[in-house]
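Deadline looming. Please check this record:
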Amino acid sequence: MGLNGVLYSLYTRRLRTQLTGANLPRHVAMVIDGNRRWARQMGFDDPRVGHRYGAEHLHEVLGWCAEYGIRHVTVFLASVDNVRKRDSDEVGNLMRMIEDVVAERLRQPGSRWRVHLAGRLDMLPQSTRHALKLAEEETSGEFHLTIAIGYDGRDEIVNAIRSLLEEEGRAGHGVDDIAQRLTADRLAAHLYTRGQPDPDLVIRTSGERRMSGFLLWQAAYSELHFCDVYWPGFRKVDFLRALRSYAARHRRYGA
């Protein structure tokens, strides 16, 4: 191990010590951004290679989450705009990575993660829908992973309102009655993520400092951490720094 390796090991140990007994998030959501830019930075001729490295890196980061008892993780794999507007070859490559590296590996024996899905699955190729549905149906671990794909937070809220109105209409309730009975909890029961706790901490890689439509409802009171590294280069020390930052904050709901 060279000097850099020794220093990295010592710093990681220091961060672990600082987190001993700390208040850690029970739900971490992540915008895993920067795969193509990382590939260019690393000198790859085809930046799409970054999607494979990013997909493989997800499993390593999930291991870190499990190590620190973070039982709920949500990852933003692809937005509605990613699926609709990017080059078809790039989208096809990304979907294959999700099928072969993400969904397939989560289904392997011994996986500790139970998969949940959030987003417009109807927008995805049939093979990707099938792979993700199998992962959802066949996993039953003690840790929960929500995969946000074909996802847009505004669409989610609109669809939740539509679903609530349709449910109330079938029950024979009028508009005035629906309006009187409407609450945040009742609407949340129609979100893609119903039944899951809201994220305590949202991490975004790549240096971008925006939510990009991710969990707009659920992250209303989340702590935000923006990391200036691309997703495939997101190291354990970066993860531990995010946890340390969270632990140092005093959460003030509604203020």
Summary: The mean pLDDT is 94. The radius of gyration is 19 Å. Strands lie at 27-31, 72-79, 113-118, 143-151, 201-204, 223-226. The chain has one domain: 25-152+197-247.
